Amino acid sequence: MGFHVEHPAQVPVFIIAWLLIVKERWDFCPIGRTAGAMVMGVLTVIVQTLGPEEAFDAVEYGTLALLWGMMVLVEYLKDDALFDMFVQKVFVKNKSLTPVRLLWLVSISCGALSALFTNDTMCIALTKTICYVCTQKGFHPGPQMVAIAMSANIGSGATLIGNPQNAIIASISGVPFAKFLAFSCVAAAVALVINTAALAIWYREDLQENTAFAAAAKEKMIESGMYGATETTEGGAGEGTALLAGSAELEGSSSSDDIEGNTICCFLGPYSMETQRKIFRKLLIFVIIATLAGFLADLDIGWCAAAGGLAAMLLDAVINHKVPDRIFARVNWELLVFFSGLFIVIEGLQHTMIPGQLLDEVDDLMNVETLSGVCAFTAIITVGCNIFNNVPLVLLVGLASSYDDGEGVELKFMETIGDPELAWILLAWVATVAGNLTLMGSVANLIVAEEGKHYFEMSFPYYSKFGFPITIVTLYVGVAIICGLWALVY
Question: What keyword terms does UniProt attach to this protein (predicted)?
Fold first, then answer.
């Protein structure tokens, strides 16, 4: 079968969409990723690559439901100051911290929490707090910022809810949550240890107490108007609220507690506000555990996450008598809209038959049941992620059809390169960890650089000189662990 292109008008649509994705805003057209993806999605219909119904069908609503539900649960955790309590106990009030000990605490905490509550969320929640702790204790924040970014990506690879590309894989692959966890969790744990140990060695000169650096950083914060927002007295009651991302979100949650009187009535009777908060906190934790149990029980992952988020809203309304408007306002609707447009654009590109035909040329080379195939698969996906970005790459590969039979579509590409479930698990791992190669490789890295810029300018060379080589190591170590465990079990 010769190379054949259907709907050629879709090719420039995809190229423009890709250009809008790889850079947040272009000076000549600062439309941004979200609006750009939607415009290109509409153009996909206008050029008749997809019909209106096909475009709606192209949207993976299970992925959107999963992301929405997890966003809501995370916002309730922030609203109830549970993240605050964690960072206070582990970081802010920890009197035995040394730079190296802090590095290990940051890596393990960020990796574990990212597996449950997504990498981007943890980068936002922890970066300013950790940088503030470094400034107060005379530590260089640079190694800690690198640790947050890289550990968030590695840890998020352990579960199907750890990052957006894994959420997409959860929706389209059919791999059970528990099976994915069993293989990827081990790989993530080992990679996290290797990465942190390497960090401690590579940045050993920066992992010394440096009061002069801390004083300079504090002066920079004062000049930027940040220091007053985070400085508190020793053991001050308001310390955690100001520290956690220095966030207006938490300030907003405090203002929402301004309820007249000191008692609240729900259908169970009147309670003091403190008792009411404790009841809600315990029920919120129960909802989160129940949601995770639903994932492990192989319930529909999108509906399960959405149900968890809605259950938290219902409990908040019944027990706290709060409307959910503040939670809706904090949900990252732009991300959901961006994904909707991207799904349509990628489905349009699949209709051109280009991705499937190109991948058919390398399907034998990428067979995940052979050593050479696994190495080639890892290398090709890594390069692809750093060209197209990991989310579009996962959609391109995951939704591509195989045309090798010459008679039409019978199989998806992922079904032609060995065991499909192993291929999906490897795709998730490689697409996630490949983001650690360079500072520009993932959104999580850029979030850390932006959130911590008033404390330390994490430059491209500072990050990438370490990130590039160690990522190659952790990528292939993780792949070897996943394939080794797979061979033992199957």
Answer: Cell membrane, Membrane, Transmembrane, Transmembrane helix, Transport
